[in-house]
Amino acid sequence: PGDKSTHQMNAFQLIGMASSLDLSGLFEE
Amino acid sequence: MLQCLEGVRHLCGVLLKCCHIDLKHPKGLEDPEVLARETVFSVSEVEALYELFKKISSAVIDDGLINKEEFQLALFKTSKKESLFADRVFDLFDTKHNGILGFEEFARALSVFHPSAAPDEKINFSFQLYDLKQQGFIERQEVKQMVVATLAESGMNLSDEVIESIIDKTFEEADTKHDGKIDKEEWHNLVQRHPSLLKNMTLQYLKDITTTFPSFVFHSQVADT
Question: Is the predicted ipTM greater than 0.90, yes or no?
Fold first, then answer.
């Protein structure tokens, strides 16, 4: 869930939330 | 002497011929049907994707290839932003390891992000993303490096103690073989339990690529089936 606090997340969920790994930028003007 | 001049003329002719062929068939979209067969894209989608590729690859140097600066520019609209993930993704796209992306590398890698791509392909790609040293497993130190880098990039602040405790809990859950690393099988199991770990591995945009880049029809070489 989106409201999960950072302490409840596992490290990879935290990375996913904090990182800018979203390739959709490639398709946007 | 005459033979020598004749040889030079022949050589020049061959060179000019090569240049001419290169101009007629710019490297990139050589055989959309082959790519369509070997990826999840249709021929039309490959051709539409090529329109996107041309746009990105001409942003800094119009050479029909995407360098890291152009990749970052397309992703973030700035080439200044530092991103460990963008670097990793670029390196994984760059299967020829020459620092630039040709169209084939670009299309094959993006195919993994297609909504219709096999989940296993997405799981393997995400595993490689975290396997920074490409050793076939994810080490605790690699996870920490990624957590610290991504938190810094996003301006989030967590104490080292909290980060260590999050990583401890992650390894307690993921490292079921208790050898201090996460192998592909363990990663697969972790992703099954937390499908959200793959959320960035699917790009809905790829489903609508032909409507986003309709101009591909003007350059289409093949009638789609």
Answer: no
Q: Which residues of chain B approach chain A closer than 8 Å at the C-beta? A: 52, 56, 74-77, 81, 83-86, 89, 110, 113, 129-130, 143, 146-147, 150-151, 153-154, 156, 158, 162, 165-167, 169-170, 173-174, 190, 194, 196-197, 199-200, 203-205, 209, 212
Q: What is the pLDDT of residues B86-143, one digit of tens each?
A: 899 999 999 999 999 999 999 999 999 999 999 999 999 999 999 999 999 999 999 9
CATH number where B104 lies: 1.10.238.10
Q: How does pLDDT run across A1-29, given as a tens digit for each residue?
A: 344 566 678 999 999 888 766 788 898 87
**How far off is chain A from B8, nearest CA to CA, in Å?**
47
Does residue B24 belong to any structural domain of this protein? no
Same domain, B158 and B194: yes
Helix H or strand E segment including B55: helix B43-57
Interfacial residues of A (vs B; Cβ cutoff 8 Å): 6-7, 9-16, 18-27
